[in-house]
Amino acid sequence: MTESVEAPDGGYAAARLRLLTQEAQAGPPRRAALASLTDRWLASLAAEAAEATGMGGTSHAAGRGGGFALVAVGGYGRGELSPRSDLDLLLLHEPGDSVAALADRIWYPVWDLGVALDHSVRTAAETRKAAAEDLKVQLGLLDARHIAGDPALTSGLRSAVLADWRNQAPGRLPALREMCQERAERQGELSYLLEPDLKEARGGLRDATALRAVAASWLADAPREGLEDARTRLLDARDALHLVTGRATDRLALQEQDQVAAELGLLDADALLRQVYEAARRIAYAADVTWREVARVLRARESRPRRRGILGRGRASAAADRTPERVPLAEGVVEQEGEAVLALAAKPERDPVLPLRAAAAAAQAGLPLSIHAVRRLAATAAPLPVPWPAEAREQLLTLLGAGEPTVPVWEALEAEGLVTRLLPDWERVRCRPQRNAVHRFTVDRHLVETAVQAAGLTRRVGRPDLLLTAALLHDIGKGWPGDHSEAGQTIARDMAARIGFGPADADTLALLVRHHLLLIDTATRRDLDDPETVRAVAETVRDTCTLELLAALTEADALATGPAAWSTWRASLLADLVERVAGALDTGALPVTTDREPTTEEERLAIEAARTGGPVLALHAHSEPDAEGEDRTETLGVELLVAVPDRPGLVALAAGVLALHRLTVRAADLRSVDPIGEGPVALLNWRVSAEYGALPEAARLRADLARAFEGTLDIESRLAEREAAYPRRRGIAPPPPRVTVAPAGTSQSATVLEVRAHDAPGLLHRIGLALGATSVTIRSARISTLGANAVDAFYVVGKDGSPLPDPHAQEVARQVEARLR
Description:
By secondary structure, the chain is α+β, with helices and mostly antiparallel strands. The protein is built from 31 helices and 15 strands. It has 5 domains: 12-167, Beta Polymerase, domain 2 (2-Layer Sandwich); 188-304, no CATH class; 324-422, no CATH class; 430-588, no CATH class; 603-820, no CATH class.
């Protein structure tokens, strides 16, 4: 675009106006054209100033100038001029030259035109010194671009600045990361703010610039897929904001969002925010991955031996070539250099549960999930069958039950499209804004945060799996028109069936989603002294199990919403209502029984154990076809039957042996029978899974069980050795265990103790030891694992074989809980 030089500014203002309103398309072409137009204008000003001040040199057209260079830095240096952007300029000169008059003749016309200007006048040495002292100056100079004057000056400065940055990067990158973190704390997350700052908030343009600086250091690079598109979308939104407001602003205020959306050709303000949020998430995720890589590289540099002499070089080379340690986390998943990665033998194309298993293992260990692992899973993992197999459901629940570490792992899955592949209905709530000042997050992040809060409440409920799933789905209807609770009820029932819940559980989840606002609305808006109020709630929730789930969901939802949604007053009102409704409902017994007759195989094993006096076992591994039609052992389908003459402490001993063999107890049925009238035989029916690797040989398992029952196997020392050999970085501490006494009437022949705790290797062994220390006898037990939560019911009696008196039962519960803590 060539302009006549008739106006005092050479026609720049008129050409600029036409460019912004008529001549160029929006987006990168307009920003580049605006930068090019501004370059030509400034070059003409510099040439005129040089001639007038006697600085010498030839015209700009010849490509050379004497004694000075006009350099664009920062965003202008990148050629990204938004309509109201500042001009970041450096007037570079030789030492000893006086350029004050030259600078005035360049700066004043810019000021006269009302264009914002951020300028400096320095020699190359002064510029490098300023960069060494001020990180922001250094970052701006990384994008230095020549405009006018002597190109050699600009080229020399660029080379020196980049060399300085690369040499100093190990010391300066941590400072840059700290700067980014401090800015994020001040400005918040761009992807969740109703009035976000497109530049300063986390995931904004500043973070994108920081990623460019990391790449320029040559120490690490950002994952580039989608990153440039995300940055472009934020720049486009800022351009539209400048045009709508006529101001140099980066804050997307509520009152301007509809106009900005229209300027960008979007449907409405919600569509605008969703687009901005998606871009911000991509940049924020790239930043997380990049900073982890920077930290890894810096750790490796610090641990590398100094290379001194031939021997020193050999040691350094060996250290550099040493394969990083890989610690198993789960089947197909290992920890390496502070991340959860796929094992070398993992085959995602034949293991459809692997994405969820890897995510659950990472969250439980408090580790980030490697971007390389996520991308490989996204590209090659076989699709899950519908309904999901039991293991997939268990792994999803384990992921949701991990607490705060769930969030970054979930974000990693979402960044590569795995969440919507697993749960297609998630797409409608992804990045959906909530125009409610009470809400801190978008709909999808609020759902994940509610699951995080629910993970801390799982000890209060008998079905933590239903609580965590309801937390994830309670607002799923917000992606549909109409009442989100009514729409969500239908969606939740369908999603529950997809995940693999049975019809009864799907109905409960649908009820929880439909009425997730019932308790808080009733508690805060109705008269609790009115019997009709309590009766209506009781009729809706149906039973005490659903009531406790709804109460926990209500609290988790409020805590995830924001500080204004939960208070001591609201908590007291909710507790009052729940107590009144519970009183109106019939107290139901625990859903466990002890009257099942032994199967033919159990009876055969019990008779053999009674006759031989030793442990007898049978191991059955059920299989299901994998994605290629071949048999694959289902992790939750391995059944272990053990029969052994009954004696105190069997539960702890047997569970300890299983833990030594890296078998996780998913469910168990422990009972005592007398098959031939010569004394009781304990029947231990376990459903187990291998923590990772293959199942143990039955002969080895039987031998260790025999040694344990004989007292010749030191289980405690072996478990301690195993833990020491495989140290793991742990995530957020789970809620403490809770031990309660079931209501009277649950069993006529025993006292039922219910233990709710975080599932972990050796948990059942520790529970058995704790119960044994109280001198009670375990008559039977029902063990169940729901995601990361163990919900175990133990039927115990006293020394006389009778149920425990209530005071004694409560004391036993307190002692067991204290030992488990």
